[in-house]
Every structure is written in C-alpha cells, then in structure tokens.
Amino acid sequence: MDLARLIQIARGAEPADLLLTNARVLDLYACDIIPADVAIAGGRIAGIALPETDAYQARDVLDLHGSYLAPGLIDGHVHIESSLVNVPEFARAIVPRGTTTIIADPHEIANVLGMTGIRYILDAAKYNPLSVFVMASSCVPAGPLESSGAQLSAYDLESLLQDKWVLGLAEMMDFRGVLATDDDVLAKLRTAAARPIDGHAPGVRGVDLNAYVAAGIGSDHECTTREEAQEKLRRGMVIMIREATGARNLSELVPLVTPQTSRRFVFCTDDRTPVTLLDEGHIDAMIRQSIVLGLDPLLAFQLASLNAAEYFGLRDRGAITPGRRADLIAFDDLRAPRPRLVFRHGQLVAQDGKLLPYDRPLRLATLPVSLSVPRTSLQFRIPAQGNRMHVIQIIPNQIVTRAATDDATIAHAEAVADPGRDLLKLAVIERHTGSGRTGLGFVRGFGLQLGALA
C-alpha cells in the first residue's frame, strides 16, 4: 500500500480499513499479553493501541470481545505432496486451522517431474488464501541409489533461486556427499549464497556435524533424541521440531525449549496425511500438544510463527507489530487454542473452522502423466536363499528404521509374507521409464493382517 497513507493511518490521522477492538494481543517479542485495538490498512498492521485511548477509527470495526490475537501460523518445512491433494485443497485443510504461510520443499514432485513439478507447485499456489514459499530442492534424486524421473543440477537450482517465492536451498539430504566434498553437492551449496540452507542429517554427530554446519547448513528437522538436538543446538543450528504422521518427535524435543533457547526452535509438520490433518490439525495441533507437555503458550507461538519468519528472512510476518502483514488468528482459549477467525493480508479468510469462499481461476494448473509401469513385467516372487532373511524393522512413530534378520517363511521354494509374525513383503517399483525394475524385501512393524498398501 501507499507508504504515506500507512504512516498517516498509523498516527491516527486517517481512518483504517479495519479495526479489531478489545483483543488480547500476544506480544511474542516480550512474551507478554496486552489488551489492544489493532488497526489494519492495505493488508498491513498500521498500529496497536490500548482500547481506552480510542486512538483509531476505521471504516469497519470488529469487536473481538477479549479474544486472543496471534500472528498467523507458519509451517517451517512441509511436503505438500504428502497430503495427497493439490495446493488449493491443502489450503482448505490448514488455513481454517490458523496456518497462513508454509515453507514447502517440493522434492517429492521434483523427483518425478523435475523443474516442471516445481513450477507446477509455484503456479498452483497462486490465488489461494495461503502464502506458499518454496525451498529449491537440493537432492533430486535423493541419493545415488534412487531411480528418479528427473535430476536437478546446481544450474537448475540457480535459476529457481531467481524466483521471489523461492527462499533458499531445501533439505540437504546427501550429508555423505557434503562430508565427502562431492563437487556436485558443493556446487549446489554455493548457489544458495547467503540464503537459508535447510539440513537433513539424522544421526550426524561430532566432527562430522562440525563439517556439515561449516558447509553453511543452518537447520535440521531430523533430530529424534534430545541428545542429538542439544548437540546441533550448540553448533548453532535451528532445530525444527517435527510432528508428522509417521515421524513424531515433539514430545521428545519440547523439553529442550526454554526461555533461553526458544528462539532457536521452529515447528514443522514435514509429512502429514489427510487423516492426520483433518483429525488432529496442523501447526495448531503442535501448539496444543506442546502446551499440554508443559511449554509456555507464548513460547509455543514463538515456535509456530515468529521464529520461522525470522529464520527464513520473512520479516513482514510472524508478529503483531506496525508495518507487518495482517496475517492473524483470533481464538478464545490460550491453553488450547483453536482459531475462530483467520485473517490473511487483512481479509477474513476462515471462520469457525471453515474456509470462506474466495475467487479462484477457472482453470487450475495441470501436470503431465508421470506413471509408466508395464504390468506384464511385474513379479513379486522372492526365491528362498537359506532359512534366514534380512528384514527392515520399523521404529514406531519415527522415520528411521533398523536392519534386522529373522527366520524365513518358505513356501514352494520362495520366501513369503507371514502376517501372523508381522513380516510383510515390500516392493519398490521403478515408475518413470517403464523398465519394470523392482526391488523386493521384507518389513516388520506395519501390523497389516489383510490386503495390501500402495
């Protein structure tokens, strides 16, 4: 908006577009709650004043009757693809829960479609009531053993980083390449220059961690133990506390968040399926869970908004201060917050858990067909080779697994699944080129007794 007009409205010399009265504003800098009226103009917060001062007038006035007012929530690391829906539907699920900004790593769709997939995410994110920023996917494919549908080079990433919606380099999963000073990996790190570089370094400790951080990598969302997170915290990393569908680390890591350390933590969901999103929630659910675990509500909101905004350089959001975007949520219970009203850029976009209607393009962004699997080439037989077999052991609520062995169940000279012992057959099928290549093995920990999952 016009800067001169914003200044005049902030001084009370001109009427604001919207005035939210009788709010209890969460001050995330001083960790305090202040009674205030909040003036909004042109999608920005123009000013904050005590209600009794009558400092502001506005064309529209909304009395919050003492509701709490917090900045819109920010997910510091998420793969939209894991929700199994497109960007507008993802927004419909999370905006009513208070999330107004996400930092997405589209490496899952990039693994299939490369730059076309990332451009699709950027295009599909337009005209939605959700701000979608992207981190340039650093590891496509994720590793040298992966059969991907595309590859991204440092040159590709450099072109992506010219887009204003691309903030930096997404999770550097190839930590082995970093430690080995692989030329391609280092070239990708250099493209980020001074921009944020996210990490992905499960179990990396000691001098290897020193090297990983020295490469310029600033965050990690793969900590599964307090000890690992503490060491990375001491090396200067921002710790993204993840609470995904299959990897739940919040209860283990929240005790590390104190008034002294809170500004070095960020909430993220990473991968949440539709069931988890709809039944539990999004970042709002992490706030409620952390408060139940003993975290001060104001610190929880720091992790859910201000900290992510500052880490990613989004200095126009994350707090309720003059000049920032009016991305706001209003709720009634500080210890179990559930957004009643959600504002994005000064406009009411969700109310009482429902997304309000908004203007959408008649034609949504589309993608080319990306599946090429010749059914005649598929086979899932595993010839028995002795009486023992290797098994992937799932660790409940974690993304990491263990290597194990067990007695093979053999039928007709083949190793077969044995649901009674929770031993299931696992197949990974190359889906991009129609080669028919299939990797087969056994996994324990799903508990599946009937049918199959794909």
TrEMBL record:
Keywords per UniProt: Hydrolase
Residues of the Amidohydrolase-related domain: 68-348
Gene Ontology terms for molecular function: adenine deaminase activity
Domain Adenine deaminase C-terminal: 398-454
EC number from the UniProt entry: 3.5.4.2
Catalytic reactions of this protein: adenine + H2O + H(+) = hypoxanthine + NH4(+)
InterPro entries: Adenine_deam_C, Amidohydro-rel, Metal-dep_hydrolase_composite, Metal_Hydrolase
Domain of life: Bacteria
Family as reported in the entry's similarity comment: Belongs to the metallo-dependent hydrolases superfamily. Adenine deaminase family.
Name recorded for this polypeptide: adenine deaminase
Source organism (scientific name): Candidatus Segetimicrobium genomatis
Taxonomic lineage: Bacteria, Bacillati, Candidatus Sysuimicrobiota, Candidatus Sysuimicrobiia, Candidatus Sysuimicrobiales
